[in-house]
Amino acid sequence: MIKLKALFELVAGVSLTALLVPAHAQETCNPDSFSNPDLIICGQQTFEKVDAVLNEQYKKALVSLAPADKKQLTDVQKKWVRFKEAYCEDIYQSALPGAEAPIERLACLVQTTNARLGELIALQTGLPLDGFYKAASVMAGQDREKGLVASMERLGGDNFDDPLWRQYVDGHCEMSERVFREDIANCAVRMRFQLPLNR
Questions:
Q1: What stretches of the chain show up as alpha helix (H) in DSSP?
Q2: What is this structure's pTM?
Q3: pLDDT tens digits, one per residue of 65-108
Q4: In this structure, is residue 111 part of a structural domain?
Q5: Residue 24: inside a domain, yes or no?
Q6: How many domains does the chain have?
Q7: Residue 13, domain member (yes or no)
Q8: Of 7, 42, 84, 189, which residue is 20 to 30 A from 32 by alpha carbon distance?
């Protein structure tokens, strides 16, 4: 009787777990399809992969940093999550009632997560995040002193006035200045350059 009860509990647990697994995880992404349901499935699976890599890099960054920086990284990561969720929700809401709204939100989540992933890798390796500074130097041309600031501002795009964004950027750029001596103002422009979609 005890073995039968244990078997029943095991089957019930597995069945409950199967119900909790999102439907998209059981579906296959068809990258050749441009239908909204297929784009949503592929977008969700892409986001889950990028998010898993981001979580791995976050854990590695925590291990590699000094104790004071670990606390700040945890704080900055929380600010980034709040910004990402609110920003991508705004994009979703602005696309409603269109059927592409979930696709827009997923694209935002993937791009925002990729940008944060680059920041976490840079904190660990010191490698440049992107070609931002190189592109700014090339755009500056011969008169590098005068042209560099202008070219960085052009690359950064319009000023982005969002309080959640500002909290995230201020915290991250403070770390970047301390760890890499990156100018805080330049860091903010560089991060604005990486901001996806409706920046």
A1: 2-20, 23-26, 36-64, 67-95, 101-125, 132-140, 144-156, 163-180, 184-194
A2: 0.77
A3: 888 889 999 999 999 999 999 999 999 999 999 888 999 999 99
A4: yes
A5: no
A6: 1
A7: no
A8: 84
